[in-house]
Structures are given as structure tokens and as C-alpha cells.
Amino acid sequence: MLYGFISISRRKPTWYQLKHCILRNFGGLPEEIVNPVDIFSRNLAHLVITNAEKTEFDPECSSTGMIQACLQGSSQSESETRYLLLLTENYGALTILQQKIFSMDNAEVVFGSSFPSDQEYTQVCRNINQIKVCMETGTTVILLNLENLYESLYDALNQYYIEFCGERFISCFGLGTHRVKCRVHKDFRLIVVAEKHVVYEKFPIPLINRLEKHFLSMNTMLTGEQIKLTDELTEWAKKFSAGKTPPRIGYRKIERKIGDAFIYYHDDTCSAVIHHICEKNKFSEQEIYPRKEQITTNSRIFAASEVEELCEFLPLRRENVTVLTLQQFHTEQQFSRKIKLCADRPTIV
């Protein structure tokens, strides 16, 4: 990668070029344990000026800039890049990919659900075939929650190709002993999105080493005003979640968290909401204030017997409340279809 910069600029590498290469090669490490940029800057202080002005040959060193360089290539370098592993605290990074980094017109998301029927061998084969089609057509594929098939991608991640008649092939792609040759389009890119703790605790070291790693969170994508709005929304969510509920005999008082009031709440939820509103509706930060609305949902441990109490407390009409349990679904498709039917159902007023 460093050679790619030098081959274009024909000059001694600058600190920004070195920093870009360091982060692209040694990113994804916990900074509280090791900071590769600091280590290199200390050892190269006598060779390069770390506080020099940025030049036209210098690449972008922000998270977004490095990810774009990995996906689309860099105009300052001719080198080929590895496929990408995005480490997040949650799956909020997928929203960033859709809204900020590149157009999703030529991208496919493959999500591995935990529903029983989606864990069967036939579904795993379908996922493998979907990735194979993306390889051959040059479609960017984003993989989430597919730990059961990452091992099948090792040969593709190695990026050791057999070239024939101007086309690139990998010799071993598939599942188990069922493997075939597969053509790899030159525009094909692969992105693995995974939670940070899952990568550190469960991902095999050979898999991690094959991918270019970067941290990504919604907070790094917001402006100053958007961060302020995010703080206000987070504070409101805390107050709402801590709101008093009707006293119930035999129940001890417990401290409620935001996740008890909002399904699948995580640290990036509020920032994702603000970012989505600003990007999709083209609102300025000042225009969001008069458009604030209260949207509520139920706890993940909500029981059907509490429906009447919920309707009375919010208040809501009983006909507008639907109680679902994950156990009643066998595939993600069934779950998504039911949610869509509930969302499309007219509200009774």
C-alpha cells in the first residue's frame, strides 16, 4: 500500500500516507490496549514530520475516508485492498453504509437470522449461492450474523486468484466437501459487519487476519448540532423509561433502563434516529425541534396479560395493540411478513 502511494507521488512518503497505511493494516485493535499510530510515530519521529501540512497526495485518515478507500479504491494509490470487517457496538453500522458511505444500488445484504428454519443446511447453502452470484456479477455483499459460513470464504478472502482469459477465479469455494471454482468479478467487494465483542471472543484468528478492520459507530458521523440533539433525545429516553408505572401488589420496585421501554435499544439508537431524520428528510438541525413526536414501544419481556394495563396507561385502543412472540416464527421471512402486515393495518381511532 505504501508502495502504491510512492509510485504515484514519486516522493518520500508523508506522515499522512504512513498513518493511512498503519490504520489500514493495524486497525481494529482496542486503543486502550495498543495504539499502533502512537507506536509508529514514536519510532519514526526522526524520519518523518508528524505535524506537517497535508498535501494533494495525502489520503483521508478518518474512518469514513479509509472505508471508502477500501471499497472504492484511492486516487492516491494503485494498490489492491483486502475485504472489509467493520467492528461495531451493534449493527448500527449498516445504516451508515446505506446512508453515508456509498450508494446501495449495487449491494446485497445477507443476514443470518437465529430462527430455527434459517439454521438448516439448505438455508446455509442458499446463502453461499447468493454470495457466489455476487462474486460473479461484481455486486458488493454485506454479511451480518453469518458465523456458520465464514469458514467457507477463506479462499475468497485470501484473494489468491487464478487468471484465465482476463478473468479471475478462485479454485475452492463452497461448503464442506462440496466446493467448485468460482469467477470473481474485479468490482466485487465483501463487507463483514460484526459486533466488536463477538469478533474478539469468537472469530478465528485466521479469519480476522484476512480482513481489513475498522471501527465504525454513528457518533463518529454526526455534526456538532446533531450530537447536541442526540444528547437531548437520550436524556428524554432516560426520563421516559424511568417514568412511574401503576403500582402492583406483590411486585418489588425495580430500576428501569431505556432498553426496557424501547425494543433493541443500544448506544447508537438515538444518534441513528437523528442521523436518519437529517439525511432522509433533508431537515436541518433547527427544523427537527418542532417535529418531535413521542414514539413508544414495549419491553422485551412484555407479557400478553399486561396488554390491558398498557393500553390504559399510554393510552391506546386495545384493537391497535398486537402481541407477538419470537417462538411463534420459524424463519425471518415469516417474522418480517407479520411485522409488515401489522404496520400496514389501518389504525382504529
Automatic annotation (TrEMBL):
GO MF term list: ATP hydrolysis activity; ubiquitin protein ligase activity
EC number: 2.3.2.27
The keyword Acyltransferase belongs to this UniProt entry's keyword annotation: yes
Keywords recorded for this protein, A-Z: Acyltransferase, Transferase
Top EC class for this record: transferase
Keyword Transferase appears in the UniProt entry: yes
Transmembrane residue ranges: none
Designated name of the protein: RNF213
Organism: Mytilus coruscus
